[in-house]
Amino acid sequence: MIADIKAFLSDFLVLGDPLIYGADISIVLSMVAIVFVLSYFKKWKWLWKEWLTTIDAKKIGIMYIIAALLMLFRGGIDALLMRSQITFPNEGFLDSQHYNEIFTTHGTIMILFMAMPFIVGMMNVAVPLQIGARDVAFPYLNALSFWLFFVGAMLFNLSFVIGGSPDAGWTSYTPLAGAKLDPGPGENYYLIGLQLAGIGTLATGVNFMATILKMRAPGMTLFKMPMFTWSSLITSLIIVFAFPVLTVALALLTIDRLFGAHFFTIASGGSPMMWANLFWIWGHPEVYIVILPAFGIFSEVISTFSHKKLFGYKAMVWSMVLISALSFVVWLHHFFTMGNTAAVNSVFSISTMAIAIPTGVKIFNWLFTLNKGRIEFSTAMLWALAFIPNFLIGGLTGVMLAIAPADYQYHNSYFLVAHFHSVLIGGTVFGMFAALHYWWPKMFGHVLNEKLGKISFWIFMVSFNICFLPMYFVGLMGMTRRMYTYPEGLGWMPLNVVITIGAFGMGIGFIVMVYNIYWSARYGKRDKTGDPWGGRTLEWATTSPAVEYNFAHIPKVETADAFLHMKEKGTTGQISKAPFKPIHMPNNSGKPFIQAWLMFFAGFGLVFEWYWLAIPAAAATMLVMAFRSFEYHDHHYIPVEEIERTESATGRLN
Amino acid sequence: MKRLTLKSLGVLALFLVFLTGCTNKVAVLNPQGPVAKQQYDLIIWSFILMAIVVAGVLIIFIYVLVRYGRKNSKGYDPEDEGNAKLEALWTIIPIIIVILLAVPTVKTLYGLEGPPKPANATGKKVEPITIEVTSVDWKWLFRYPKQGIETVNYAVIPEDTPVKIKLKAIGAMNSFWVPELAGQQYTMPNMPMNMWIQADHPGDYLGRSANFSGKGFAHMSFHILAKKDANFDAWVKDVKANKPALTMEKYKKLLEPDIAGEMTFSSYPKVLDKKDAAMEQHMNNDDMEGGMNHDSGH
Question: Least C-beta-crowded within 10 Å: which of A306, A460, A498, A546?
Answer without folding.
Answer: A498
